[in-house]
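Holo prediction. Input below; ligand is pyridoxal-5'-phosphate.
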Amino acid sequence: MPQVWTKKSQEEIKDIVFAAIDKNINYDNDGALGVPASYLDDKIFNQDASFLKEAPFLYTLVKNPNHIGCHTLGKSESFFEGTHAIERELIEICAVDILKGELHQQDGYVASGGTEANIQAIWIYRNFFMKEHGAALEDVAIICSADSHYSMDKAANLLSLSVHKIPVEHATRGISQEGVSSCIAEAKAAGKKHFIVICNMMTTMFGSVDDVHAMTNALVAADCSFKLHVDGAYGGFYYPFTEDENPLTFKNTHITSFTLDAHKMAQSPYGTGVFLIRKGYMHYANTQEASYVEGEDYTLIGSRSGANAIAVWMILVKNGPYGWHEKVFILQKRTAWLCQQLEELGVSYFRNPNSNIVTIDAKFVKEETVHQFGLVPDDHHEPKWFKVVVMEHVSIEKLEVLVKDIAGNLETV
Ligand SMILES: *Cc1c(COP(=O)(O)O)cnc(C)c1O
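Structure of the complex:
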C-alpha cells in the first residue's frame, strides 16, 4: 500500500499549489531587493490572465520559483520554501512508493534529465572513493553494459574516468555473470581498484533490464570495492509497475542510487529527471564555495525551475498510484498485441516482457516504413534494429497500419 502517494482531485491540487506559491516570496510586496530573480516579464507573460487561476502549472511557471540546491537535506533558499515542500513530497513518492525505500531515508532532487542524474551519481561515487578510500582518479572506473545510454561516456569524459563495458548477447540483450567477471578482470588488469557500476532498468533502445544479480554476484566474488547506481531514466515510471518482483529497489542493499526520467514515460515537461540516493551520500557533491546559496548546493545544475517539480508532482497525484498501474497496464496490453502480430508473421524482434518497447530486426523493415511510421534505429549509419515505443498516443489502430505494412513487405525480405 502506498505510504505517501495519494490520488488528488484537480481542486485539491489547485489549492495545494496556490498555497505553496503563497508561501514563496512575493516580489510585489516583500522587500526582495537582493535576489537576481523576479516573476516572468509581465510585458510578455501576463501575470493576471484569468486562465492562470485554473492552471496551477502555468501559474507556477509565471511565478518562476527557483529550486536551486537539494531540499531533502539541510537548509534551502527560504524565498521558495512553499514549492520546495512539494518537490520534497515528490522525491518521497518516488523513493518510497515507487522504489520501496524507507520513509525519510533518501535524498534527491529534480535534475535537468537522466543525463544529469547519471552524472550526479557518478560524480558522488568518484568523490566518495577519493575521499573515503584515498583513491586516485586512475583507480576509479565505470562499469556498465554495452547497451547503456551514452551519458555514461559523457560522465567518464567529464570526470576523467575510464568506462569498461560488459558485452550483451545479440538476441537477448542480456549480460552474463561471466561477462561481468571478465569486464572486472580487464579493468583490474588496467589498474582499476574501485568500481562505479551502472545497472539499467530498461535501456533506451531495447527496454532491456540488466540482471543485477549477475552484476553483484560477480562483484562480490571478485571482492570489489563498488557502488551501484540504477539508470531508470527510461524504466523508472514503468518497470516498477509491471514487475512485481522488481529486484531494482532500495530494498536491494547493494544499490545506492537511481535515475528516473519523468519526461519520458511520465509525459512531463522536459527538465524533469529525478535523482534519488540513500542518505549520507549527497554531501560528496557539495560545493561549499556556493556561499551565496542558502543551504549550499549539492547538485550539478544550480538554478532550476520549480515549475518542473510541480508538474511531475501534479502528474503523479492526479493519476494516483492505482491509476498509474492502470495506465501502464493498458500500454502493456497494446505492446503484447503488437508482439503477437509480429509473432504470427514470423518477424523477429526483441521485447522485455515488462516493457513497452518492441525492437524489430531491421531486415523486416523497409526504409519507407521507417519514415512513414517514425521508427527509431539503434544506429543511424548502420541500423540493425528499429524500435516502436508504445506510448499513450500509440493506439492499436495505429499499430495495425504498421503491422499491415510490414506484412505487405515480407516477400521482399
Ligand atoms: C533517455 C535516457 C537517458 C538520458 O536522459 P536525458 O533525460 O535525455 O538526459 C539516460 N539513460 C537512459 C536509459 C535513457 O533512456
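The longest helix spans residues 306-345. That is the main takeaway for now.
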